[in-house]
């Protein structure tokens, strides 16, 4: 099962993931880093959005397991 | 063989200079160019190489490094303040960025919306009450981002005029190098006093919160100055360029007015096609690195031809077309890697509010100078328009 993995240590808080899918990603109020709301994409559309987020995340903090 | 001079003139405002496209489409995608400073730099034009370069710690952002790419003969005024976020490499960059990024999250930006809406509304009121034609750059594009960042930092309203005057002196093409240095000094001295006042009497604004979390006042000073500079002319230029582009496409503008959900994707496309701040994506190599079959040596200056990359046909379908509904965010108009624009979601929101409000409030807005006769900033560090005369009809 594909799962999103987020490494808050690498994250620079650009918020690109939140713009891509606010249902899956959030940013912590404290230091702006990524918070996963939904690690397992619910359907193909959500998976597509997750793939986009992985591609555009500027700090390469996001990945997908296979 | 000497490297050809870097070309910056765009034949068409929304296409990269031909020379940059040629470099991108060459076998390696990388070539050497001579900068106005006399430095010989590597210039890379492919999105894939630029993303690799901007995420590789072997390339440094230390703008005080003697070989960091410079676009003027004059030395930037780095002696006036401590290095700020944009100049820091790991391991210093991460903690400095995390100390402030909470101020710029998507959610925090949404909280600023009502106040930005009010600032934009007031400037449009003033515009409508004033003479026609008028220069939109001075009336709207420049003051809006400046006032927004002033409020966010916690600059008292009464000092906004001082701020605007010194920021304009800093940005104007007619200011001498000494004049620019003076403007930086004025702003620095002002901010230093403001920060001292907020240390004594804590305030609930960005500067106050940085101090409250224990940041060194001299680091808060560098950060305040960076925030002031980084988001002012950039956002202003995108406002002006966006207005021209939309006015030149009445059909698409009408669609946008009908459906505000189209505005954000349109902004993303405008950011991509104009890529106004590509020279901010410069670095200096601190180790030997091989990219695209070329060996870049430690100490070599490197440019990311980000505009060419944002028109890279291997990354964007029909890359040379403006498609306002494309909505692609894999561009590098805000940079890439750890330094990707901290203010990007503020910039997106300012642009969204300005476009939505301006075209709703003044539906008859039109250019008073043809788009192809506008003074584009072909010689500037950040691309844009010097002056944008607009006019409109009396309401029926
Ligand atoms: C459309 C408007 C804007 C554009 C095109 C733009 C572009 C950029 C680019 C290309 C970078 C990367 C520089 C590098 O890699 O060295 C950057 C960084 C930065 N920008 Fe923006 N910017 C805009 C608006 C803003 C605004 C509104 C603010 C803040 C109020 C801002 C604050 C910053 C800061 C602080 C950095 C440095 C971040 C770091 O080094 O971690 N920018 N911007
Ligand atoms: S896109 Fe990447 S860097 Fe930006 S907030 Fe999300 S995980 Fe962090």
Outline of this structure?
The complex is a heterodimer of chains A (66) and B (396). Chain A has 66 residues and is of the alpha+beta class.
Question: Explain this structure to me?
Answer:
Chain B: It comes from Actinoplanes philippinensis. Chain B: Residues 1-31 are annotated as: Disordered. Chain B: This is Cytochrome P450. The complex is a heterodimer of chains A (66) and B (396). Chain A has helices at residues 16-20, 44-56, and strands at residues 4-6, 25-27, 34-36, 62-64. Chain A has 66 residues and is α+β, with helices and mostly antiparallel strands. Chain A has one domain: Alpha-Beta Plaits. In chain A, the strands form 2 sheets. Chain A has a two-stranded antiparallel sheet. In chain A, strands 2-3 form a two-stranded antiparallel ribbon. Chain B is an alpha+beta fold. Chain B has a single domain, classed as Cytochrome p450 (Orthogonal Bundle), CATH 1.10.630.10. Chain B has 15 helices and 10 strands. Chain B has helices spanning 18-25, 47-54, 93-101, 106-129, 136-141, 143-153, 160-171, 177-200, 206-212, 217-230, 233-247, 250-258, 263-274, 306-309, 344-361, and strands at 30-34, 40-44, 59-60, 134-135, 283-285, 289-291, 294-296, 301-304, 366-367, 389-391. In chain B, a hairpin with a 5-residue loop joins strand 1 and strand 2. The mean pLDDT of chain B is 94. Classes of the chains: A alpha+beta (66), B alpha+beta (396). Chain A binds chain B through residues 12-16, 18-20, 22, 26-33, 52, 55-56, 58-60, and chain B through 54-55, 94, 97-99, 101-108, 329-330, 334-342, 344-345. The site of protoporphyrin IX containing FE has 25 residues of chain B, from helix 10, helix 11 and helix 15.
């Amino acid at each position: 099962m594909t799962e999103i993995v987020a490494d808050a240590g690498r994250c620079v808080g650009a918020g690109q993931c939140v713009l891509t899918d606010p249902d899956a990603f959030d940013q912590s109020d404290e230091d702006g880093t990524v918070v996963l709301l939904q690690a397992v994409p619910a359907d193909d559309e959500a998976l597509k959005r997750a793939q986009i987020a992985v591609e555009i995340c500027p700090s390469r903090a996001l990945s997908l397991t296979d | 063989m000497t490297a050809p001079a870097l070309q910056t003139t765009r034949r068409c405002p929304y296409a990269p200079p031909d020379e940059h496209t040629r470099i991108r489409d060459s076998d390696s995608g990388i070539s050497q160019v001579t900068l106005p400073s006399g430095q010989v730099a590597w210039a890379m034009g492919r999105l894939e190489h630029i993303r690799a370069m901007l995420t590789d710690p072997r390339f440094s952002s230390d703008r005080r490094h003697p070989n960091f790419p410079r676009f003027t003969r004059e030395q930037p005024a780095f002696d006036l303040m401590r290095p700020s976020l944009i100049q820091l490499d790991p391991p210093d960059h991460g903690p400095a960025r995390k100390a402030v990024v909470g101020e710029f999250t998507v959610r925090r930006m949404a909280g600023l919306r009502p106040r930005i809406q009010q600032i934009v509304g007031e400037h449009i009121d003033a515009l409508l009450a004033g003479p026609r034609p008028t220069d939109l750059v001075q009336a709207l594009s420049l003051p809006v981002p400046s006032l927004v960042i002033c409020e966010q930092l916690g600059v008292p309203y009464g000092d906004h005029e001082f701020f605007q005057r010194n920021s304009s002196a800093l940005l104007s093409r007619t200011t001498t190098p000494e004049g620019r240095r003076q403007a930086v000094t004025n702003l620095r001295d002002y901010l230093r006093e403001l920060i001292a006042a907020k240390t004594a009497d804590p305030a609930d604004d960005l500067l106050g919160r940085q101090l409250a979390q224990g940041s060194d006042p001299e680091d808060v000073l560098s950060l305040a100055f960076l925030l002031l500079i980084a988001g002012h002319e950039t956002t202003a230029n995108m406002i002006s360029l966006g207005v021209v582009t939309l006015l030149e496409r009445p059909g698409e503008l009408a669609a946008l007015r009908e459906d505000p959900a189209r505005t954000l994707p349109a902004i993303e496309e405008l950011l991509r096609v104009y890529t106004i701040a590509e020279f901010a994506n410069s670095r200096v190599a601190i180790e030997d690195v091989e990219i695209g079959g070329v060996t870049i040596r430690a100490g070599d200056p490197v440019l990311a031809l980000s505009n060419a990359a944002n028109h890279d046909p291997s990354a964007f379908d029909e890359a040379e077309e403006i498609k306002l509904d494309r909505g692609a965010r894999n561009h590098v108009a805000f940079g890439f890697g750890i330094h990707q624009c901290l203010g990007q979601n503020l910039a997106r929101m300012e642009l969204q509010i300005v476009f939505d409000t301006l075209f709703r409030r003044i539906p008859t807005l039109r250019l008073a100078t043809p788009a192809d006769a506008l003074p584009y900033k072909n010689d500037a560090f950040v691309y844009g328009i010097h002056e944008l005369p607009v006019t409109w009809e009396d309401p029926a």
